[in-house]
Amino acid sequence: MRSWVIKFWRSLSACGLVAGTLFFVASLTPTLIPRTYLTQGVLSGACFAVGYGIGAAWHWLWAYMELPEPRERLLLVLKIAVTAACAVVAIMFLWQTAGWQNSIRQLMQLEPVTSAHPFEVCIIAIVTFLVLVAPVRLFKRISRLISERSDRFVPRRVSKVIGFAVAILLFWTIANGVLVRYALHVVDSSFATFDALIEPDRAQPTAPLKTGSAASLLSWEELGRAGREFLATGPTAAEISAFTQTDALEPIRVYVGLRAADTADERAQLAVEELKRVGAFERSILVIITPTGSGWIDPASMDTLEYLRHGDVASVALQYSYLSSPLSLLVEPDYGSEAARALFAAVYEYWTTLPRDKRPKLYLHGLSLGAMNSEKSMELFEILGDPIQGALWSGPPFESRIWRNMTEHRNAGSPAWLPQVRDGSFVRFMNQNGDAGPANAPWGPMRIVYLQYASDPITFFDYRDLYRRPEWMDAPRGPDVSPELRWYPVVTMLQLVIDMAVATNTPMGYGHVFAPEHYVDAWLAVTDTQGWSADQITRLKQYLAARGRK
Q: Counting beta carbons within 10 angstroms of the beta carbon of residue 440, is it exposed (0 to 12), middle (13 to 18) or buried (19 or more)?
């Protein structure tokens, strides 16, 4: 074992060790989401591997250009010195990691950590580095083997190019054709099986006007796990009345699962017929919801509106995938927008046939991937003659087209994490502290609100973070962004990738977890709901916050 370690160390590049260590220590600094020692170890190991690869590539280029290098004996001494120096630097930065993590945890009202578990971080980082380096070394061996075989027939430099090209083709074919497809098939099957499970605490509704009941056009078994959760967990008229001390209606919720019909258009038509059956078009507000990739709908988003409007709300959603939002975005990037557009077109077509003074106000809503696909569900020029009343989009992913356009063309002086756009009559951005627009600013005929947190990496990730400092780091920073956060080329982008994977592990009201009390402010702005005093709104926020944290 010892001889293998020494042999492996001797095979490492000194330049790679230096660059890898710089990347390693930079990865210990904070970004948007608090890290456990497990996520920190994986991140640091990946950053070390990337840095090592860049340093080793630089050394290879130096040798390829036949520039002078130290003799072998001196090179060994230098490598020992470099290894020792790198270890000292890594230990110094590991010592500060707990303080950096606490700078985020304090803003998110989490208990501070007393230790960042440096030993565990190092072990996990080493394992991660070895796992990432192994296929690279295998690639080099295969490339060298092919190059040596072809060296008999072609010049040496040409044989190296052939070996490299054939190795790339071989690895790409195996990875894309076998591993990726098999993995995606397994994941899709697993999510589909999980979606079909009937939860013992989700009893089929008996009221005829409930979706999923015996009288419904939609089978309870075909609604899917997320659909059954959405229909079974909303507040009842009695619960709303008990809080508001006024009469309330039973909220109407319609959900069409992925197994209800073969195509998105067929499922959309089923949704419209179910809406007609339950009297949804007789309510004062109708919300078209685009769920996340798995079909999930944030309970906080609709519960708040149903309390604010005393149950006089109808909502409808259409499932388009079993996969989680990141996987759905990777595997089915256009399918979600296709389903969202089909539902909007079907509902909007019927809605426009109703008398304007008797039909409900029509709104769009979506969270995360649902927000991005909800954006795509309509085109502004299609509804100019008969516009909808607005939209609430929360946690829009960084690839959301309208969100990005509004953010990039924000008013000068407004921060990227809470932009102001023109006079605020069409679109506004809100966070934990409300919106940053002028008080009592007038709205136009359509109201669009983006609810987002500055600590949400799913919203603020950008591939360009690889080589340039993002604008949301400029002062002033968001209220939930660590003042210790710094930008480092390549490393910051890798940090944000890890942040995206754990963005839903934050306390409610930070990261990608949206609090009911913040939805209250957003829905008040979007729907122009009247009749609530400031004290009543405060009490509602406290009640919903306690209800949401149970």
A: exposed
Query: Cα separations (Å) of 158 from 63, 153, 161?
Result: 18, 10, 5
Residues 241-283 pLDDT 10s:
999 999 999 999 999 998 889 899 999 999 999 999 999 999 9
Contact between residue 260 and residue 267 where contact means Cβ atoms under 8 Å apart? yes
- Given a cut of 90, is residue 1 above it in pLDDT? no
Ramachandran quadrant class, 368 (left: phi over 0; alpha: psi -120 to 50; beta: rest): left
Rounded to the nearest 5 degrees, what angle is found at the Cα of 253, between the Cα atoms of 298 and 524? 60
Question: Three-state SS for 318?
Answer: strand
What band does 128 get if pLDDT is binned at 50, 70 and 90?
very high
Does residue 268 contact residue 346 with C-beta atoms inside 8 Å? Answer: yes
Q: How many CB atoms lie within 10 A of CB 205?
A: 18
Which of 225, 162, 234 minimizes the C-alpha distance to 199? 225
Contact in structure between 447 and 523 (CB atoms under 8 Å): no
Q: Determine the 3-state secondary structure of 444 from DSSP.
A: coil
Q: How far apart are CA 147 and CA 375, in angstroms?
A: 51
* Residue with token string 């709303």: 240
- C-alpha 298/C-alpha 266 separation (Å) is 25
CA-to-CA distance for 525 and 436, rounded, in angstroms? 13
CB 544 within 8 A of CB 142: no
Distance CA 424, CA 410 (A): 10
Tokens of 26: 């930079």
The pLDDT score that the predictor gives to residue 513 is: 95
pLDDT range class, residue 331, cuts 50, 70, 90: low
Number of residues assigned to the chain = 550
Q: How many helices (H) and strands (E) does the chain have?
A: 21, 8
- List C-alpha distances in Å: 362 to 292, 314, 319: 20, 10, 20
Q: How far apart are CA 302 and CA 306, in angstroms?
A: 6
pTM: 0.89
Residue of 303, 237, 252, 309 lying closest to 282 (CA atoms): 252
Residue type for 491, please?
A: V
- Give me 483's structure tokens: 């003042």
DSSP labels, 149-182: HHTTTS-HHHHHHHHHHHHHHHHHHHIIIIIIHH
Q: What is the mean pLDDT of residues 187-192?
A: 52
Hey, what are 348's tokens? 């909007």
Kind plus residue range of the DSSP H or E element containing 409: none
